[in-house]
Amino acid sequence: MKYSFLILGIVLLSCSGNKTVKVKGSDTEVNLAVQFAESFHHYKPSLFVSVSGGGSGLGIASLLNGTADIANSSRRINDKEVALFREKGIALDSFIFAQDAIAFIVADDLPMESISTQQLADVLSGKVRDWEQITGKHLPVNIYGRQSNSGTHDFVKDRLHIAFSPRAKQMNGNAQIVEAIRADHSGIGYVGAGYVSAGANKGIKVLPVYTTDKVDAVSPLDAAKIEEGKYFFQRPLFQYFRAKDSIQVRPFIDFEQSAEGQKIIKTGGYYPVGK
Questions:
Q1: Distance (Å, rounded) from C-alpha 269 to C-alpha 275?
Q2: 9, 24, 184, 207: which has the highest count of C-beta atoms within 10 A?
Q3: How far is CA 46 from the centre of its chain?
Q4: Could you please report the per-residue DSSP string of 222-243?
Q5: Which is it for the CA torsion 245, 247, 248, 251, positive or negative?
């Protein structure tokens, strides 16, 4: 994708009297949010949007402590976080602005073309430590994942009902994982599909995933299957904001939901929310 650095920020040049909306959170969403912010600046130059990543947990914490106006999150806010907002008397509002699919990636010379959910559970939990059990090729399994404050980390863990192997490397973001897999021919990692779409997968391959039968394997890059809800690791992407700030953030949110916003979602490698 166009944006590959770990913590992205746009602080568009401001002048006296101009307002800024601060968006923080999910690394999965940060590239998309940057594209929204750039386009929105042309639509409404009097309202500036700054964007940074750091993980869903950081975004929600920043919303709680007042250093963000919108929290990007690739997971639902959890009960503990809800309780913290209630303790401070902060009412929240939210909406789902796009869908994402988690892509499982390996080096392009690893001899496998798809993977089952059970194999993923065995590999990511550390039960399987050598690719020979799956591919017939003797290579140690190296896992590249996200840190525990990542919504993607939680989503994959919960979807597979596993605890990640303690040997899994915890990376700061999706772009780091992609680069690690390019360099490690026995590695496996998981990233948002937007990071490996639009020709950004040189040196790696995206594994279609199936539950019981290989012929039913679905790629996270298959827009038609995503629209049908057929991919095992697809999920909604959330934005949370304080209810009292609704008027301030509404122009940006409305832009995301506009026809132009939907076009940005599609070209960025993400998927619109179903009707």
A1: 19
A2: 24
A3: 29
A4: -HHHHHTT--TTEEEEEEEEEG
A5: positive
Q: How far apart are the first and last CA of the chain?
A: 27
Alpha helices in the chain (DSSP H): 27-43, 56-65, 79-87, 117-125, 132-135, 151-160, 174-183, 223-227, 246-257, 259-267
Average pLDDT over the chain, rounded to an integer: 90
pLDDT digits (tens, 9 = 90+) for 2-42: 443 333 344 433 333 458 999 999 988 998 999 999 999 98
Q: Which fold has domain 19-99+236-272?
A: D-Maltodextrin-Binding Protein; domain 2 (3.40.190)
In contact, 220 and 226? CB cutoff 8 Å: yes
Angle at 101 between CA 135 and CA 28, to 5 degrees: 110
Pick the CATH number of 101-228 from 3.40.50.1980, 3.40.50.720, 3.40.630.30, 3.40.190.10: 3.40.190.10
Task: Answer whether 149's CB lies under 8 Å from 194's CB.
Answer: no
